[in-house]
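Collaborator request, handled under Task 6.
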Amino acid sequence: MQELVHSIREIGVLQPIVVRRSREEGDTKYELVMGERRWRASQRAEMATIPAIVRDTQDVDLLRDALLENLHRSQLNPLEEAAAYQQLLHEFGTTQEELARRIGRSRPQISNTIRLLRLPALVQRRVAAGILSAGHARALLVLEDPAAIERLAQRIVAEGLSVRAVEEIAQAGETPKKEKTRKATPANRHHERLDYIADAFADKLDTSVKINLGARKGKMTIEFASVDDLNRIISVLDPEIEKD
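Structure tokens returned to the collaborator:
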């Protein structure tokens, strides 16, 4: 909020808030539809006027518009984002394709995010708190038994398992005994570094990423579900690149 207040003081409000004419009795002429943070920050910045768009929004659309606005906030954690998607789909009869088009995301990305709501409550809390990454959470969903999911989630925290390691364990359908601690050799540290990089890319791109290193050369594999999903990944890697 303080950064936004400073920005508004320096260069003003770049994106107008959205209001509608008030339908309640009293002196209030307008009701806020979208842009509460910009409005509050403008008050703190002591702005006399700010740009606004007056829209004829029906009551039934107010919550939908507010949810769509919130989906563009970078501070939403994966569970909050999943809950917002679910609410839009159930309460407003929106399809995943329509929602993807409205917010500029791929349908597989929305579907995979909603699947996080199937995790046990304890695991969901860890994802919401940032203890488990979205990549770890998606890997856990391969398991169907809630108890097995919770056990593996505890191992992720206790042992610092990478997303790739969790995927391998989950696909095996069991949680094998903890391997003996390997001696910290340069080769082991090198592979751990590659796993860390793959996990970081997987979280950023919201898809599975694998890095394999051979004797002379390596290979990075980025999975995508469709052409739209590929275009989404490309736009994340380079927003300026031209897509056909």
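The cover message to the collaborator said: "The longest strand covers residues 17-21. Confidence is low (pLDDT under 50) at residues 175-184. Please let us know whether this matches your experimental observations."
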